[in-house]
Amino acid sequence: MISFRRFISLTISFSFLVMSYTGIILFLAPKGRVANWTNWELLGLDKTHYTHLHVTFMVLFLFGMIFHIYFNWSSLINYLKNKARTFSLLTKEFLLAFGINVLFVLGTLYYWTPFDQFLDFQDDLKAMWEKKVDKAPYNHAELSTLEEFSQKMGIPTSTILSNLNTHHLQGITLTKTIHQIAKENSKSPAQIFDIIQTKPSIQPLKEGGGYGQLRLKEAAIQHAFDLQNALQFIAERGYQAHENTTLKEAANALNLKPIELLELLKSSQIKESR
Fold it and tell me: How far apart are alpha carbons 191 and 38 in whole angstroms?
């Protein structure tokens, strides 16, 4: 037969240890915005994992304590009896225990010493994490899709897609969040941001590179120029192209070679970005 009392006592002991451990980790961990942006982890667990563990084990500890009080109710009542063995809330032990708890409540809420020093120490730890890493450009930037990020940061989507594809990242679409892309490629959102904001540069094109077969929307992604600006650039020179127009078709209409048109589109993009 299992001793239910022993089972409950061991359960609350284990849950107390886990709850204490996760509480210490959360005390030392960086703030959520820093942890999420940098993919902060300890022993393979991120801050969200530690928060969830802390909450669930708090619930387990709470239920364990309810049963523990139930099984030890008579002992607890004895703690509230005076020397005459009558129930009293004025025993020295009760008043001391109650007073200490009230002190911790008031000391924390009103920032009394040494509670203020302890809380300031935690704030200093959090601030230290923020000094070590680059901050996100805005709150919860990792939850923005690439399209939303492009709009807020003023970076053309073509540049974003080109930079990410240049680094051979997988699953890149404008509807995915930075967090999703980072997770799928085993990187942090901060690393994805570093890749995104890489300054576009003109790479030398090679004759016979097969550029003529590229549709304009494909060329825009691969060579980091804005598709709408490119279509306008071509239209101003007398040819109405669309996103599925090939470079060869547009180049022939403008009496150019595909490689020459591509050079012009890339050069115009760099000038606009400056």
Answer: 8
